[in-house]
Amino acid sequence: MGESRGPCPPSYVPEFACSNNNERLNFDRSRDQGSAFPGLKKRGHGHGSRSWIKIDQDGNSKVVELDKATIMRHCSLPSRDLRLLDPLFIYPSTILGREKAIVVSLEQIRCVITAEEVFLMNSLDGCVVQYKSELCRRLQTRTDQSEDLPFEFKALELALELACLSLEAQVKELQMEIYPVLDELASSINTLNLEHVRRLKGHLLSLTQRVQKVHDEIEHLMEDDGDMAEMYLTEKKQRSEAYALGDLYVQDNFSGETRAVSNSAPVSPVKSNSGAWKLQRAYSTIVGSSKYGSFASSSTNGEDVNQLEMLLESYFVIIDNTLSKLSSLKEYIDDTEDLINIKLGCRGGLF
Predict the structure, then answer these.
(1) All structural domains of the chain with their residue ranges
(2) Which one of 185, 241, 258, 336 has the minimum C-beta count within 10 Å?
(3) Which of 224, 231, 221, 208 minimizes the C-alpha distance to 312?
């Protein structure tokens, strides 16, 4: 894993964010043009194209315009998986292993990872920009400690890393803000302090839910060897290519055997069956060899998923520690509320 990066910098947030007045103006303008919600597509116009950042194995990146149907065909994904990446909807963090791709939605990082490339949802968000630049850097330098990892795991690891770092930074920021407010509230109970704590408590609840979802998603993956095995995209691709080579070998030899038999004198049915049996036996020998048998055994027996499990476990420890900090913060708020109730009760008893 590369050196630790700081949280996604807020400087990447676009400066042209609309004010309330501008939003109202844009809403009225879009309504005059026939649609109050320009993000929604009219029926019959097909799937609109979106901007994606395509990153290949060598760290080269380019912006491409692809529609939903093209992504579905290229990555063999159902439509419901791509809905998880739609910026018009809010979905919890998700990591899905499919036949030819890994669908990742972690905080602001939404991408489709294959054995050869990453399709990253284009955005001006700081985490997206940092993901793109850091992944390209790691792939181009190839001096990272994860050099032995297949391409798809390098891309997945960086998404986990940036999501965990971003959430950890937000927790630290909340801690720095909430502890002084709670201490002040304990010494001076007034409406302003109570309102401030109420707002921070809502922020704490929202942040806890997001951290909990990432925590649960990683834990779920580690508990299911089948789901982890689905994510070995490079191995599955090599296995598929090996089977294709084996089929081609048998077809070529079978065609040669057929031509040799047709050009010779007529043979008995027994002899023809014997030739076909020899070809079938030769194919079995090829598939059972060390080159092809290794792929075949990995698809039928329990896959060795230790590599991915160790990767997930390292980030599970990080996110679990972040969740513990949030739990401690909630306990501190509860203790402060109990103290305030006791003080208010004592005041009421004096009158």
Answers:
(1) 10-28+47-226+317-335, 233-302
(2) 241
(3) 221
